[in-house]
UniProtKB/TrEMBL annotation:
It comes from the Bacteria. This is YaiO beta-barrel domain-containing protein. NCBIfam families: OMP_YaiO_dom. InterPro entries: Beta-barrel_YaiO, TPR-like_helical_dom_sf. Residues 177-349 form the YaiO beta-barrel domain.
Length: 411
């Protein structure tokens, strides 16, 4: 009986060993990938990759995969041992440089990671993955100018690279310390008001180590009266994922502008090139109007899609505003065509002074388009037009056309 049991035990142990010995390195590699990606079993995948390398010690792809497995298993020492062995063999495979540089990047060894990326780019100068990794490393190390150079080169190679487009949008405001801007908004009403509206705005932006700060002065002529408004806005960075918007404004010309304006939003850079926002805006004329906002955005190749809503609670009902925006980027972050479609009035629009009465609870529809472009990466121009069809009195509608021009000089 004991002999039978021992024989059974030996056969039971030897079956997988015999099977593994008779599988090719390619078959073992396929099984290792299945164990890692389908079963999420890294120890099993590591054993299979090692067995494959015993059969084919110079199988570069398996060695790179084994190094990645150690990286994913939070064993950087073992991963480095594998990658350093490949480096000593003068491996030039682009996946090797990506895997090794990513290991050092994830462990905050930015200089080592950049050195590996640059070495890889010497062999593969048009590698999108290496250029994107280089931009990420520099961005994490707060070297935004270098990050911008890498991502711009990548976008020149492939303007439809979604992740590069998303990253560039996040770093574009950090690459220049100062910016001066001027804009002009014109509004024409066919019925609601006899006089056209004019708004002239001057702004100064300063980038600081924690985010950008913007000062604004707005002059407006509305209802055939003049008024000034002063604003300050900031975009502090909280982490690699989160940043905020905070803003406040004051005007002595109540009615043309709100007496006080405040607002705050929390933004999140989400996976898959998504971004989200939740916040509030408050306008005070003779009393306060509170508006709560949320938005979701998505980069896809050359496109950016955004859906935003404003919810305004009231005593009897809740007013809602929705706006969908699409941008098509032609080059950099400031070169795009835009299209907008929505309902309701938002506090960011030139007609926000109408929010002090019940007008905003009536039906408003809008459609708009714009074009922004840059010259020499330091001069930014914009032009846009928006058409409003607004119920300014119950069952009485009028049309409004807004035109906007803008110029910003970065330095």
């Amino acid at each position: 009986m004991k002999k039978t049991f021992c024989l059974f035990l030996i056969l039971w142990i030897s079956v997988p060993i015999y099977g593994q010995e008779n599988r090719s390195s390619d078959e073992l590699f396929v099984e290792a990938r299945h164990a890692a990606f389908q079963e999420k079993n890294y120890p099993k995948s590591i054993d299979l990759a090692k067995s494959a390398l015993q059969k084919s010690p110079d199988y570069t792809d398996i060695s790179i995969f084994l190094g990645r497995l150690y990286t994913w298993s939070d064993n950087p020492a073992a991963a480095r041992e594998v990658f350093e062995g490949l480096d000593q063999r003068n491996v030039e495979d682009v996946d090797f440089f990506i895997a090794y540089a990513s290991l050092e990047y994830w462990n905050d060894h930015y200089e080592k990671s950049i050195a590996l990326v640059d070495k890889g780019l010497g062999f593969h100068p048009d590698s999108e993955d290496l250029l994107l990794l280089k931009a990420k490393v520099y961005n994490s190390n707060n070297k935004f100018a270098e990050s911008e150079q890498a991502v711009l080169k990548l976008l020149e190679l492939n303007p439809k690279n979604t992740e590069a487009r998303s990253l560039y949008a996040r770093i574009k405001e950090l690459t220049s310390k100062n910016a001066l801007g001027i804009s002009y908004d014109f509004s024409h009403f066919d019925k609601q008001f006899d006089d056209n509206w004019h708004i002239l705005s001057l702004s100064y932006k300063r980038t600081t180590p924690i985010g950008s700060v913007i000062l604004k002065a707005n002059y407006a002529n509305k209802f055939a009266e003049n008024g000034m408004q002063f604003e300050m806005e900031a975009y502090p960075r909280l982490s690699k994922t989160f940043y905020m918007y905070v803003g406040a404004g004051y005007s002595g010309a109540v009615g043309i502008f709100p007496k006080f304006r405040t607002g705050a939003s929390l933004y999140a850079n989400l996976p898959k090139s998504f971004e989200g926002e939740i916040g509030f805006r408050q306008l005070y004329f003779s009393n306060s109007i509170w508006m709560y906002t949320a938005s979701i955005g998505k980069y896809y190749k050359n496109f950016w899609f955004n859906l935003r809503t404003y919810i305004t609670p009231g005593n009897e009902n809740i007013s809602q505003s929705y706006t969908g925006t699409v941008r098509y980027y032609t080059k950099g972050a400031n070169d795009y065509f835009s299209f907008q479609l929505g309902t309701g009035i938002s506090p960011e629009e030139s007609i926000n002074s109408l929010l002090q009465n019940e007008t905003y609870k009536l039906k408003t529809y809008k459609i708009g388009a714009g074009y922004s472009f840059s010259i020499n990466k330091m001069n930014f121009f914009s032009i846009s037009a928006t058409y409003f069809n607004q119920e300014y009195r119950p069952y009485t509608k009028g049309s409004q056309i807004d035109l906007s021009l803008g110029y910003t000089r970065a330095f």
